[in-house]
Amino acid sequence: MKDISKYAGVIPAFYACYDKDGAVSPEGVRALARYLLDKGVKGLYVGGSSGECIYQSVAERKLVLENVMAEVGGKLTIIAHVACNNTADSQELAAHAQSLGVDAIAAIPPIYFHLPPKGIAKYWNDISAAAPDTDFIIYNIPQLAGVALTTPLLQEMLKNPRVIGVKNSSMPVQDIQMWKDEGAIVFNGPDEQLLSGLAAGAVGGIGGTYAAMPELYLAIFRLFHEGKMEEGRQIQNECCRIIYKMCSAQGNMYAVIKEIIRQKGGPDAGSVRAPLLELVPEDAAAVKEAAGMIAAAIAKYC
Q1: What residues act catalytically?
Q2: In this structure, are residues 269 and 15 in contact, taking their beta carbons and an 8 Å threshold?
Q3: Quick check: helix, strand or coil at residue 153?
Q4: pTM to 2 decimals?
Q5: Per-residue pLDDT tens digits for 53-106
Q6: Which residues sit opposite 13 in a β-bridge?
Q7: H helices within 136-266, ranges in order?
Q8: Which residue, of 143, 158, 161, 238, has the greatest Cβ tally within 10 A?
Q9: How many other CB atoms are there within 10 angstroms of residue 46's CB atom?
């Protein structure tokens, strides 16, 4: 029986950290990992959407994970997203992640070409085979991958003893209950519904805005487990309002978040990589307002 306690909690999706020239910054990676460790989160999800993985080379993704593990490996639960749009590179990243001692690897389905379920299962199982001593988590994000996890596909994947669960970023909360009924552990993906996801049976959450306001998501998780749903709902609703404000900028949301972290006194993670849009001067007001909303919510609820 797998020990799932190490996966139960708030796990921020780790952001890409760049220097002033746009190269991956090992120093920035370590500073952000240390910053989040100090915030009290359960773990980190490295190399996923928030990590701008599809815009990074295999070597860059290895560099990021190496520095995360050097800084907080053994102190936080580390899940490494290793999927690339071809099997060989994905297997290389999976083997590398296992060699570093991560707790789990994760993968989206192949994007662009919509493979049949048999092809997706082979892709995931081939990746898992490259890390035979490491847990495997399916990353279900159909709105971006273009392919949705189904119950028959999950049932097929659970025949692989390394497959333990699903990072579920589809919007229907019902999906969490469905995957849990099949025996998978489930991580809530949409930040806007962490409280609902926990109520549906998620063991915890992995989220792209968690690192901007970990205090608030940690409070939601705690209040849920204390049975204080109304208090949790108030914070969840405030998190949603903050997310809407972040998304109102012209620049990419991750550029907004990195600037908010800087304004909170956290590390400088640089900007975002093209074709993602950097902040423009007109975004300053939205960033300032979102940062102010976060500070006010932390003062009120935490």
Answers
A1: 139, 167
A2: yes
A3: helix
A4: 0.97
A5: 999 999 999 999 999 999 999 999 999 999 999 999 999 999 999 999 999 999
A6: 45
A7: 142-145, 151-157, 174-181, 194-200, 214-225, 229-246, 253-263
A8: 238
A9: 28
